[in-house]
Design a protein that fits this description.
single chain, mainly alpha, 434 Repressor (Amino-terminal Domain), 5 helices, about 0% strand, Cro/C1-type_HTH, Lambda_DNA-bd_dom_sf, Addiction module HigA family antidote
């Protein structure tokens, strides 16, 4: 029987930058070296790590190659983070719900 972790709906899913930051703690590379390996500027990496910049599909491809886990993980992390914020910040009260079979 598979056990799946359930996320607390009131808690924001982590931004991909938080996950990268955790992964970097276990690696023996500086952030400057990681940025160079990704082919991006140090400032761009820091903006992602600080959750000021989202992970784009292009960046997901780079991260997936670097960490060996493919781009899908990074895109799903970003989508979950974005959707959580959108559900709380976008006013949809005037939009009806259609019952589509």
């Amino acid at each position: 029987m598979a056990i799946t972790a359930k996320q607390n709906p009131s808690r924001c899913p982590p931004h991909p930058g938080e996950v990268i930051e955790d992964m970097l703690k276990d690696l023996d590379f500086s952030k400057i070296a990681i940025a160079k390996m990704l082919g991006i500027s140090r400032q761009q990496l820091h903006a992602i790590l600080a959750a000021r910049k989202p992970v784009s599909p292009e960046m997901a491809a780079r991260l997936g190659k670097l960490f060996g886990n493919g781009p899908s993980l990074w895109l799903r992390l970003q989508a979950a983070h974005d959707a959580w914020h959108a559900e709380r910040e976008v006013d949809v009260s005037a939009i009806p719900s259609l019952n589509v079979a």
